[in-house]
Structures
1.
Amino acid sequence: MIRGRFAPSPTGELHAGSLVAALASWLDVRALKGEWWVRMEDVDGPRCLVDSAVSILHQLSLCGLHSDSEVIYQSRRNSFYEQALHQLIAKGLAYPCACTRKEIEEQQANLGLSLERHKSAVYPGTCRNGLHGKPARAWRFNVVKWSELRGSPEVHWTDRRLGPQSQNVQEEVGDFVLKRADGMWAYQLAVVVDDAAQGITHVVRGEDLTDNTARQYLLQEALGFEHPHYMHTALVLGPKGDKLSKQNGAKALDLSSPQAVFLAMQSAASTLGLSTLAQPVSESADLDLALSTWTKEWAQRYLRASP
Ligand code: GLU
């Protein structure tokens, strides 16, 4: 069974950028004749709002995008993440870490590590061999050990749009967090556990997330999961050429009428390189027709060339 997903973090309503990810993942599974599941990535408790999840689902339904399964909430799936962490601990691939953010920065400065990657330098591995008598705060994945076991720190994968990718996770990222000091599950662990548990075969999401894929590959290997196929789509850019986000002034989507919905979808489709269709009259049939036209175009454009 082909299965894709849209996995928003409910920290606000959908904006033009997140609608592109929703539409792209929907078109992809429709073109592949699979299922599309919506998953609320609300592990980051304090930042996630129940109202946002409700609004997002309403916005998606106005756009004709309906989940083929019951919507899944990560905040209700603690036991699955706990189980995966225990599996990694049992294999010696996860270790507790006592370092505070400030201590990590000091260790990095002492080692001359620069802050080049997303403004956070590689974790220097301070607690890899023990806590030095300090209390545990977070849990980290032992990238060094897993790299040895798998025979290489280099992860190679092929993106369906961007082509061959590689990353040396050990050098470029380091031992990354699985469970945070505040007790929240890290995105990397939750996403890998859920993609596997839900049988997701095709992940389609924004290009800003490309860099996470190598880490997710390593966790999938270590937990014995299959790798889904990955595709990262073009982003909607904000006024300064950076990714559109709530922080840089993404406006709320106007979905106040069938015409407004059509225009929002049209603009998402054009970010994906799909054609602009004739202006609608007022009926939702226009949207259904547009979605089926874009599905055919998607198949032409992305399925034929896919590795
Ligand atoms: N929850 C993530 C976000 O909203 C998406 C994660 C994913 O698609 O893997 O940015």
2.
Amino acid sequence: MECVNLIVGAGVSGATLARKLAEEKNQKIIVIDSKSHIGGNCYDYRDKNGIMIHQYGSHIFHTSDEKVWSFVRRFTDFNQYMHKVIAIIDGVETTIPFNFNTLYDVFPTTLAKRLEEKLLAKFAYNKKVPILEFQKQDDEDLKFLANYVYEKVFLHYTTKQWGVSPNEVAGAVTARVPVYLSKDNRYFQDKYQGIPLEGYTRMVENMLNHPNIEVRLNTDYKTVKEHFDRIFYTGAIDEFFNYEFGQLPYRSVYFKFEEYDREFYQKNSVVNYPCNYDFTRIHEYKHYLQDKSAKTVIAKEYSEFFELGKNERYYPIPNEETEKLYARYYEKAQTLPNVYFLGRLGDYKYYDMDKAIKRALELFESIQGE
Ligand code: UDP
């Protein structure tokens, strides 16, 4: 008898798995999503000015994984955009991650030079050092530098973004943006990066465009009554189990969109405000695909806790307590035959897009014999 699969969630995880099952297993797949659009939080659309808006904040595709890269390129071409982030630190415009260029932007040359020499004597050029490790300095000058970077780059930004200080979130979170002993101003050093030429929604649409795949939007998992041989769930794992062990916490973000009657608002796609204002960063989307318009649209990003029914889940909050809670759900999930969890919400992991796709590809490989 033909195997029929239900995939809950039409984001990159669900779409990747759907495509693999449809194409390589020739199985039927129903993909449902409670939202009115595909793409999950990667969803983008062109607004009335022709600007490609990333509704849920900037998404930059970057990967060093050959399999992931060759998979996504079947569904879209990418431009050669290399992401850089500008930050305003005490009114000075500079680069994030903090690197040797930042050093010279924020300090007088003689001091920057002294710090640079000390850094090079201690660390290999091109090394990436997470801030929590970088703080462990003996030298007075380097101690001063570490305190400066902690305070000006990480402390306030992380407090705004996570509601707690950098010491209270898992080290892996701030390690995503290490101190970078380099003059490379890019945010990511992956081998491949870029923006899909027709956007992420189109990329996901192309993944889902297969005769074996049926997509149903505005459809809540709880309303589905049919029988399925297998369920792949990319929604929140705690919700699947009706929160029986308690809720897994998430951070949410919201955006205040503003339209301006001028070509550009800022000179970069993302400008971080680590020390000032209550938003964390400002996105100006037209930079990504060099959209031509006399107007521009920006989004100021604010962070808050996720609350059921009020806002969306964006970021799992990795720490010891949540790991333990997640482990209980994970264990329970293992007891269910033919139900699999994946994606940021299903795995409760802070995946980037490429990691979510990699996870879906690996899950597909792991169920080959089943
Ligand atoms: N971060 C920071 N200051 C910055 C940029 C990042 O403190 O200027 C910290 C903050 O805790 C943030 C984390 O590094 O949540 C990861 O940043 P990233 O840009 O990777 O976050 P994402 O783009 O996934 O929201």
